[in-house]
Structures are given as C-alpha cells and as structure tokens.
Specification:
Layout (H helix, E strand, L loop, with lengths): L4 E4 L5 E4 L2 H29 L7 H8 L4 H8 L4 H8 L3 H9 L6 H11 L3 H4 L1
Antiparallel strand pairs: 1-2
Helix pairs in contact: 4-5, 4-6
Length: about 120
C-alpha cells in the first residue's frame, strides 16, 4: 500500500488522500471482515441452539406453499395429537388449521409456534 498524503482543510479537518487502488483494497478488506463477522455470528448461534440448519427439503415444502404448521410439525417428528396437546388445542382445531379450513387466533398460533420451537412469523 502506498503512502497517504495528509492535508488540512481550511476548517482544520485533517484528510488522508490515497491512491484509488489502495482505497479499493481497504474497502474490500472491510467487506471481508464484515463477512467473517457474520460467519462467526452464524456459527455461534448454531452452536448455542439460537439458530438451526433447516434441510432444503423442508424449505422447499414451505416455499412450494405447504401448510407451514404441518410442515414444521412433520419436520419436528410430532403427530398432530402431540402438537395439539403441547399447544393446548383440540386435535380437530389443529387439523382445521393445517387444512386451511380455519385460521388460528394469534394466541393459538403463538402456542403452536412455541410447541414447534419456531417464531410466530415462521408459521403465520
């Protein structure tokens, strides 16, 4: 990296003037550092259980319009009855939510999300 030239503005502010190539190298290094930090943060969240890796087959089902509650329930290896008990709703009500015949209230959907260990946004 070349040497920067320091100039002082009429207002007394000190500025560094450097070659464009050096500036671009600094910007690239900053972006690399940001990527490394994001990677380290993702690794930390995975290790702590704060985040999890979701198999692509599950993501594909969600993106293809599969019922989010059913997809997550099946991914978690739960039966409809187990989820209904965990969320304190009737199996019939859960079935209606999973088939789209009925929308769950916010309270019910929060309980289902908690039982599935997902955020409400993941099933809404």
């Amino acid at each position: 990296m070349g040497k920067a030239t320091i100039i002082t503005t009429p207002g007394g502010e000190k500025l560094a003037v450097l070659a464009l190539e050096d500036y671009e190298r600094l910007i690239s290094a900053g972006e690399d550092l940001s990527d490394v930090r994001a990677y380290d943060d993702a690794k930390r969240k995975l290790a702590s259980g704060e985040e999890e890796m979701i198999p692509s087959a599950v993501v594909d089902r969600l993106l293809d319009g599969g019922n989010k509650v059913r997809v997550w329930r099946e991914y978690r290896g739960m039966t409809a009855r187990e989820l209904a008990v965990a969320a304190a709703v009737s199996t019939a009500y859960l079935s209606q939510i999973e088939t789209g015949a009925r929308a769950g209230t916010i309270d019910v959907m929060k309980r289902i999300a908690d039982a599935l260990r997902v955020k409400l946004d993941d099933i809404a």
